[in-house]
Amino acid sequence: MTRDVLLFATVFVACLVEGVEALTIVLAAGMTRGWRSAFAGMGVALALLAAIVAVLGPALTALPIDRLRLVVGGLLLVFGLQWLRKAILRASGFKALHDEEAIFTAELAAAREAGREPRGIDGYGFTVSFKGVLLEGLEVAFIVVTFGSNQHNVPLAALAGGAAVLAVAAAGLVVHAPLRRVPENTLKFAVGVMLTSFGIFWGAEGAGAHWPGGDAAILLLVAGTLASSLGLAAVMRRRHSQRPAESAVPARAT
Amino acid sequence: MAWARGFASFLYDFVVGDDPAIAVAVVLALGLTSLLAAWWVLPPAVIGVLTWSLVRATRS
């Protein structure tokens, strides 16, 4: 039960974050190149992502569980550490925060410069929307497939992803602008902690280790990874504030 | 051929990302865990590699 709740929450939040980024791109394409083209590109990308999950999920689940956990756990760990590393660098000011407004403005400018096709589906708008949704969605598909196959519950993971897509789409329809107020880096930090913790848990199990306390160890790993990461973020923030003024980027709390 | 190279490069960037040393360290830590069948190898190894990666990334 605990694992299912954590699986749903992790996939939902990861999809939410990537969905916000994809929404920015789709909005820019739709506003400048036509909504039909933007939605067509988005729809094709979502269908492709669903197909990837539908094929890879059951295929991975068919593998021997130890081998699956070792490989998938290792991949999740590498992936999770990359997310966590970037989130800590952003939180401490060493890397700029993801600015949806700036990205939206840049995408709008690029789309306007690309000229316009006379009728039907606009190729530029379709491609920008397709690529944006596919690239952002691949990370989610990866998490859905790895988490879902390890838990032998790909449908639950896919449901979490789908719920997040609907939530972002609904917010986008209401706001009709990039979702600037979503605390993206905080959410990425949280997802990085979850991916890393589960990567440690499954990777070790796949390598033949047995966790004392069974599933309860996951909660301790999450708490430990979170505490360590917050500590590292605080240390890096202080390090950044001690740097010469010309290299400073405004630091934000996680 | 160019397409295959591009796809391989995309996969590498997707999984390994900005710091390939993290992937190498994770593989080594999993190898040691497998040898010792010890759960206590990965947690400190992961915190250690994250710290090391952050220090390297922020060195002037």
Structure in words:
The complex is a heterodimer of chains A (254) and B (60). Chain A contains eight helices and no strands. The C terminus of chain A is likely disordered. By secondary structure, chain A is mainly alpha-helical. In chain A, 79% of the residues lie in helices and 0% in strands. In chain A, helix 1 runs parallel beside helix 4, helix 3 packs across helix 5 and helix 5 packs antiparallel against helix 6. With 60 residues, chain B is mainly alpha-helical. Helices cover 78% and strands 0% of the residues of chain B. Chain B has three helices and no strands. In chain B, helix 2 runs antiparallel to helix 3. Chain B is flat and about 45 Å long. Chain B starts with a helix and ends with a helix. The model of chain B has no long low-confidence stretch (mean pLDDT 87). At the A-B interface, helix 3, helix 5, helix 7 and helix 8 of A face helix 2 and helix 3 of B.
Q: How many alpha or pi helices of chain B?
A: 3
> What is the share of helical residues of chain B?
over 70%
How are helices and strands ordered from N to C of chain A? HHHHHHHH
- State the secondary-structure class of chain B: mainly alpha
